[in-house]
Design a protein that fits this description.
The protein is of the alpha/beta class and 525 residues long. It has 3 domains: 159 residues, 3-Layer(aba) Sandwich (Rossmann fold); 123 residues, Beta-Lactamase, CATH 3.30.450.40; 176 residues, Hypothetical protein af1432. The protein is built from 20 helices and 11 strands. A hairpin with a 6-residue loop joins β10 and β11. The structure holds ligand C2E, succinic acid (3 copies) and fe (iii) ion. One succinic acid (SIN) binds next to α6. The site of ligand C2E has 14 residues, from α17.
């Protein structure tokens, strides 16, 4: 009820005040008879919907209509004549729009001069035609009702489409953050690193503004005169500062935001500039200053935060080589949280996986270092799932064939994201991402590898992954009783799993139980 009241209010205010500023609804009239255009325009004058006026466009043949629709994607509704240059020119337009131009949003009202000759039902259904009218029904009232009803459904479709695009943009953003983070990891020197950070951020957020990447020495709570602000990398008009200190003149504009960033240990968005804050646990303060307005939507802001966290850790990694492996580990956990944060049902999955993998690796006789690397890399086994749309990833039921195909790409996708990384752990992670769904008998994916052609880490993670998936609830299935899980894995020996890995698993059951106990999913699905 409340929603309806709001609608009324909205309509009233819009009609009273803001009509002029709002985008019109574009309505394309396609008809070879000039009179029809005239009558239609008359009938639709001064009509508005949701406070937006109508803008009537005219064209006189099917060919012209197609040409217009190839160019314009902002037409809400088409009033389409059937008989024009040919008997069925209008139907052809409808087919091309839906099947060739893939425009599923525009609404179509078909009109014909020959009453009683309605197109077949399958035409109306397959080309998603909203309404069918004889031209004799062109009275103002009838047209008004048909047009308004159709604009309402167009508006609903566009709202859904808009939300879908936000989700999609968010997903693409996640993929870029993951790729950017591993790219940052490859930089050798601090200058290259700073340059990499700037380039990646610009690519992520489409910045065209000039930017500076600076390191602050000192600066515990705010900048003082003694603090040195060294410019590691800069673009545009700031290029001359590269490798030097930022002088007071250049600092002046940014000083309040820099102080705020340092005091609050956070990123500051000012109306005409942006100060990104990164600091690794033991490192100096790093700031990314962007000169110019930075308008960020919510998903973008979250992505920047995530990226900045990874940058800070990568920076420390660069500075403190003795802690390299630890910092790699934390980057890996950060990255795998990207996947976790999208998926509704993984919970403590990645932590358990790491522990299972270690237990199996040691039981199989791998040395401590090798086992540690497999453990450290294991959380990234499903990193490719950042590329899987939510409708598939979080589908509550079984996947159909097409969805299954999409889901199966996660192995190859994860591999491609990681394959160029230099650090050993990330190289191991690439192999694991690639091979964790291969099966011992060659029936797995993506490559159908067989037996010992599958890396031992892939064979280990395959079992750990299935064990964890079966013992816990997923968005598409409940948890299984432990005895059934053990039986299924045992039966998979020699087909799905390496028999030696299954034997190691059966010898390690108490350790597996203890891990499950220690990392229980906090909120069951
Ligand atoms: P996941 O949920 O982590 O499952 C990992 C693996 O555990 C699966 O790899 C499969 O080998 C095993 N597994 C999981 N549930 C079952 C089960 O009920 N019975 C048996 N016998 N084995 C099971 P798989 O099949 O390659 O799937 C990879 C990923 O694809 C899964 O990861 C999950 O994210 C997704 N997925 C698979 N099937 C479905 C489904 O029906 N619905 C949804 N929404 N997602 C699915
Ligand atoms: C889609 O369903 O195609 C988009 C959903 C998403 O990007 O997560
Ligand atoms: C997202 O992709 O950011 C949304 C995650 C979700 O709702 O599962
Ligand atoms: C972590 O909590 O980030 C690491 C836990 C683990 O190694 O399993
Ligand atoms: Fe997987």
């Amino acid at each position: 009820m409340a929603a309806q009241d709001d609608d009324w209010l909205e309509d009233d205010t819009d009609d009273a005040g803001t009509v002029a500023q709002l985008e019109p609804w574009n309505v394309l009239v396609v008809d070879d008879e000039p009179d029809i255009h005239h009558v239609t325009r008359l009938a639709l004058t001064n009509i508005s919907f949701l406070g937006r006026p109508l803008n009537i466009l005219s064209c006189y043949s099917g060919r012209e209509a197609i040409a217009i629709l190839k160019e314009r994607h902002d037409i809400a509704l088409m009033l389409l004549d059937v008989v024009m240059e040919t008997e069925d020119a209008g139907l052809k337009v409808a087919r091309i729009i839906r099947e060739e131009l893939h425009n599923h949003c525009i609404r179509i009202i078909l009109r014909t001069g020959q009453p009683g000759v309605a197109p077949e039902r399958h035409v109306i259904e397959s080309y998603d035609i909203n309404d069918y009218k004889a031209k004799t029904e062109l009275t103002r009232d009838k047209l008004y009702t048909a047009v308004l009803g159709t604009l309402r459904s167009y508006n609903d479709i566009m709202t859904i489409e808009h939300q879908r695009r936000i989700l999609e943009a968010n997903r693409r953003g996640l993929i870029k953050v993951v790729e950017a983070s591993t790219t940052i990891f490859r930089q050798q020197s601090i200058q290259q690193f700073a340059q990499g950070v700037l380039e990646q951020l610009q690519a992520l957020l489409f910045f065209e503004q000039e930017a500076l990447f600076v390191v602050v020495n000192g600066g515990m709570t705010a900048l003082t005169h003694d603090d040195k602000v060294k410019v590691m990398y800069a673009t545009g008009g700031y290029q001359n500062y590269c490798g030097k200190e930022l002088d007071d003149a250049a600092l002046l504009r940014f000083k309040p935001s820099i102080d705020e960033a340092i005091a609050g240990k956070r990123t500051v968005y000012a109306p005409d500039h942006f100060v990104g804050f990164f600091q690794a646990p033991h490192g100096p303060v790093n700031l990314l200053i962007i000169d110019g307005p930075v308008a960020l939507s919510h998903p973008d802001a979250d992505l920047i935060e995530l990226f900045c966290k990874n940058v800070a850790i990568a920076y420390e990694n660069l500075m403190l080589t003795k802690e390299i492996e630890d910092t790699q580990r934390s980057i890996i956990y950060q990255l795998s949280e990207v996947v976790e944060s999208r998926s509704t049902d993984t919970g403590k999955h990645i932590h358990r996986m790491a522990e299972f993998a270690y237990v199996l690796a040691r039981e199989l006789g791998l040395d401590e270092q090798e086992a540690q690397i497999i453990k450290a890399a294991s959380p990234l086994h499903d990193i490719g799932k950042v590329g899987i749309p939510d409708r598939v990833l979080n589908k509550p039921g079984r996947l159909d064939e097409e969805e299954r195909k999409i889901m199966d790409t996660h192995a190859e996708l994860g591999y491609r994201m990681l394959k160029d990384a230099k650090p050993r752990i990330l190289r191991m992670a690439a192999t694991i991402a690639h091979e964790h769904h291969e099966k011992w008998d060659g029936s797995g994916y993506p490559r159908g590898l067989k037996g010992e052609d599958i890396h031992i880490a892939g064979r280990i993670i395959a079992l750990a992954d299935v064990f964890d998936a079966l013992t816990h609830a997923r968005c598409y299935k409940p948890a299984w009783p432990p005895a059934d899980v053990i039986k299924t894995i045992d039966e998979g020996s020699g087909t799905h799993f390496d028999p030696r890995v299954v034997e190691a698993f059966l010898r390690s059951l108490p350790a597996f139980e203890a891990i499950v106990e220690q990392y229980q999913d906090s909120d069951p699905v």
